[in-house]
Automatic annotation (TrEMBL):
Gene3D superfamilies: Electron Transport, Fmn-binding Protein, Chain A. It comes from the Bacteria. It comes from Thalassovita gelatinovora (Thalassobius gelatinovorus). Residues 18-173 form the Flavin reductase like domain. This is Flavin reductase like domain protein. Pfam families: Flavin_Reduct (PF01613). GO terms for molecular function: FMN binding; oxidoreductase activity, acting on the CH-NH group of donors, NAD or NADP as acceptor. InterPro entries: Flavin_Rdtase-like_dom (IPR002563), Split_barrel_FMN-bd (IPR012349).
Length: 203
């Protein structure tokens, strides 16, 4: 099968998200200028640079109580900061609950039954039970083609790692089993690892 997106695919559901998989989930916490905390998952997310460490996520929709975007982007535009909370398998239901379309003044941490704490380097909350958290300072919001498509790029200013996830000096993802987004309503979980050495590795 071949199709051009501009002509449609003719399938019951859009296969694009099922093709580009698995995708890590950026569980983005932000705070509005007037102090309302927000938490929302984004599967258009990834790390994009080492030095300085940078991440990005993309928002692709709108809310009636925001000006042409969603709460996360609106808050980050106001305050210039956000945090990325890593989603473990144990937190899957809370992550899903935080995706509900709530009013901008409502707190998804409370809605999902999550404990939050203040970040160290930025004025923002994070998920205490997350295996890792990246505190970020906004670098760019890039307007993408299409309605309400925005890429948010942040520089990581602080990193939390749960002590139980560190094994012999390595951040061991098998201890918490990170969640990944697939297509449709499907998710996957990382349980098994294998290593490959690059051809130019020197030992």
């Amino acid at each position: 099968m071949f199709y051009e997106p501009k002509d449609g695919h003719g399938l019951p559901h859009n296969p694009f998200n099922a093709i580009v998989t698995p995708r890590p989930i950026g569980w983005i916490s932000s705070r509005s200028a007037d102090g309302h905390d927000n938490l929302a998952p984004y599967s258009f997310f990834n790390a994009i640079a080492y030095v300085p460490p940078q991440v990005m996520f993309c928002s692709t929709g709108t809310k009636p109580d925001q000006d042409g975007t969603k709460d996360s982007v609106a808050n980050i535009r106001e305050t210039g900061v956000f945090a990325v909370n890593v989603v473990s398998y144990a937190l899957r239901d809370a992550m899903n609950a935080s995706s509900a379309s709530l009013a901008a003044v409502d707190d998804e941490f409370a809605h999902a039954g999550l404990t939050k704490a203040d970040c160290n380097t930025i004025p923002c909350s994070y998920v205490v039970d997350a295996p890792a958290v990246l505190e970020c300072k906004l670098r760019q919001i890039i307007e993408l083609d299409g309605e309400a498509n925005r890429m948010v790029i942040g520089e990581v200013t602080g990193i939390h790692m749960r002590d139980d996830c560190l094994k012999d000096g390595v951040f061991d993802v098998t201890t918490f089993q990170p969640l990944a987004r697939l297509g449709y309503r499907d998710y996957s979980v990382v349980k098994d690892l294998f290593a490959l050495s690059r051809p130019d590795d020197n030992g």
